[in-house]
Amino acid sequence: MAELSTVARPYAEALFAAANHDKAKLQAWAQQVQVLADIAETPDVKASLGDPRIEDAKRGGILLGVSFGLTKSKVDQAIQNFIELLVSNDRLSLLPQISAQFRALKDKADGIAEAVISSAFPMSDEQVADLIKLLEPKFGLKLKPHVIIDSALIGGVRVVVGDQVLDTSVQAQLQRMRDKLAA
């Protein structure tokens, strides 16, 4: 998996660099690339795109046609060219990784980061919003929460933003206490 993301990175960076001059274009391209990636991952389309009997010239048209209907006019010409580049380099299978990396670059440019919140118990939307309101100044970013239930935490929460971890869980407190007693 890491190998695919390494190969996908230059494509995502090039696409981002081409779109980054215009915020409206950046948002539109992010949506179009996400749609293409979602469609490319469906089993039937994936099988069709991998079929050696289909000519390269038709692969991009199939993907664009399935993703955006019979008319390509909804898709930016640069995205169509990008799909043709992926087809010619036999890299259509990288679309999900390219889309994820493009979205990460866009979020970074917008000062947004994903906050993975692990909680021992389900959290209401209001609790998540209150927690995010407290965490945003600490991390200096606008946070998009993603909540995971992890009963092993016993209580409290663990928040991961990028490579930073804020762990206020009971499990972490017990671990710190055990370490102090053992020292």
Would you mind describing this structure in some detail?
It is built from 8 helices and 4 strands; from the N terminus they run H-H-H-H-H-H-E-H-E-E-E-H. With 183 residues, the protein is of the alpha+beta class. It folds into 2 domains: 2-108, Peroxidase, domain 1 (Orthogonal Bundle), CATH 1.10.520.20; 111-182. It has a 4-stranded mixed β-sheet with strand order 2-1-3-4, with helices on both faces. The model has no long low-confidence stretch (mean pLDDT 89). One of its GO terms (cellular component) is proton-transporting ATP synthase complex. It is found in: Cell membrane; Membrane. Keywords: ATP synthesis, Cell membrane, CF(1), Hydrogen ion transport, Ion transport, Membrane, Transport. InterPro entries: ATP_synth_OSCP/delta_N_sf (IPR026015), ATPase_OSCP/dsu (IPR000711). GO terms for molecular function: proton-transporting ATP synthase activity, rotational mechanism.
Provide key terms for this protein.
single chain, 183 residues, alpha+beta, Peroxidase, domain 1, four-stranded mixed sheet, 8 helices, 4 strands, 61% helix, transport, ATP synthase subunit delta
Summarize the structure.
The chain is an alpha+beta fold and 183 residues long. It contains eight helices and four strands.
